Amino acid sequence: MNVKFPIKTKLVLMLTGLSIGVFGLYMLANAFFLENYYIKSKQKSIISTYKEIDSLLEDNTDVADEDIQIMAGLCAKTGVTALITMESGDILFNYGNKELLQYRLECSVFNKEFNPESISVLEKNKRYVLQKYAVTAEGRESEYLELWGLFDNGNIFIMRMAVENIQESVKIFEHFLLYSSIVIVIIGIFIADIMSSMFSRPLLELTNISQKMSKLDFNVHYTGNSKDEIEVLGNSINELSEKLESTITELKQANNELQRDIEKKVEIDEMRKEFISNVSHELKTPIALIQGYSEGLKENVNDDEESREFYCDVIMDEASKMNTMVKKLLTLNQLEFGNGTLQFERFDIMAVIRGVLNKCNLLIEQKNADVKLEDYGEVYVWADEFQIEEVITNYLTNALNHLKYENIITIRIHKKNDLVRVMVHNTGDNIPEKDLKNVWIKFYKVDKARTREYGGSGIGLSIVKAIIDKHNNDCGVNNTEKGVEFWFELDC
Predict the structure, then answer these.
(1) How far apart are the first and last CA of the chain?
(2) Mean pLDDT of all residues in 459-469
(3) Do the Cβ atoms of 399 and 409 come closer than 8 Å?
(4) Residue 433 DSSP code
(5) What are residue 345's phi and psi, to 5 degrees?
C-alpha cells in the first residue's frame, strides 16, 4: 500500500515547523518587547539604588567615610552617577562628573534652561521625578535616565544612568539569531529525521505486520522492546495474530470435517442407492425362479416324481444362494461400519491355509484342481485368525470358480521386513485391465454369466478388502502370463 504522507515526513515537517515558529516568535518578542523590557529594568535599577541610599542616610546630616564607600559601591554596581547636596548647597557625596551633575541638578531643580533632543517623564511623586531624555554629541545620540528629588532627611540628590541605544543592539542580535536559527534548523532537520526514524520504525513494522495479517499471513511477529505504548500495541497485535491463526485453523479443520461429512453422506447415499439396486437385481432372479417353480408344483405341471424333485432342487438351490448372499451382506455391513472388534493374536498362517484346504477339499476334487502349497514351516502373523481364514477361503473359492487350462492353483508366502505376503494364483483368463480396480466393489462382476453359473454374488472380494483394510494392511490383484494372482499382507 502506497502512503501519500508517511509519518516520518510528517514528524520532520512538524518538528521543523515548530523550530521555525519558536525562533520567529522569539524574534518578534525581541523586536517589540526587548527595548521596553530593557528600559523598565534600568528604571528598577536606578530607583533601587535611590532607596538603598535613602535608607542608609536616614536622618543623618553628615556622611561617614564608611557610608560613602557603600554608596560608591552601589553606584558602581548599577552604573549610576550621583550627586547629593545639602539644602545649603554643600556637597555630601559625589560619584561621577561633578560639574555635569551640578549642571543637571540646577536644570531640574531650579529650572535652568536645558534643551535636550527629547525628554519624557516616566514617573513622578512627591519625593522624586524619573525622566528619560536624549542628547546628540559628536553626531551620536545618547539616552539617559535621570532621577532627582529629596531624600527623607531633606538632602537634595540627582542620579543619572546612561541608556544604550537598544535598537542597534536588537538589530545586531536579530541578525545573529537569524543566521544561527538557519544553522540550528538545518541541524534540527537531521536530528528530527533520525528521531522520527526511531519513532516511525516500530509503527512501520506494525503496519507491515497488519498488512500481512490481512492476507492471512501470521508468520511475522512484532519484536520491538521500546517499553512504551508501542510495545503494548505490538504485543496486542501478536496476541491477536496468534488467536486469529488459531481460530482460522480451527475453522478450516471444522470446514474440512464438514466437507468430509458431506462427502461421506453423499457417498453413503450413493452406496445405499447402489446397494438397493444391486440387492434388488440379485434377488430378482432367484425369487422369480422360486415363485415359478412353486407355482408349477402347486398346479401339478408335471406329475412324475423326477420333475417334482427337480422343481424342489431348484427352489432349494436358489433359496440357499439367497441365504448365502444375505449372510455375506451382513458380514460386509459389520466390517464397513465398524461393528465388532478385531481379536488380534499371534498364529501360524500356514496352519490356517492347510485348514482351509482341508475344508474345501470336496470342492477342489469337484473342480479337478491341482493345489500346490510349498512347505514354509511355521510362519507367524498378528491378526484376527477367524477373519483371515475368511479371506483365504474367499481367495481359494474365487480361484476355483475361475480355474481354466492346467487347473493349477499355487499358494505362496513371501516374507519381507515386518510383513508377510500371501499369494493365491490360478491358471485361467486374465482380468481386463479396466476391471482390475473394480473387482473389490460389492456386486461387481467381471463375467456375469459365469458368476451366475457358479452362484457368485460379487460380495466375496468386497469382504476381503474390508477385512484387510480393518487390519491396516494392503491387498491386491495382478495378471500373470498364465492366469491371475490375488494377494494380501499381514504384520508378522
Answers:
(1) 62
(2) 84
(3) yes
(4) G
(5) -155, 160
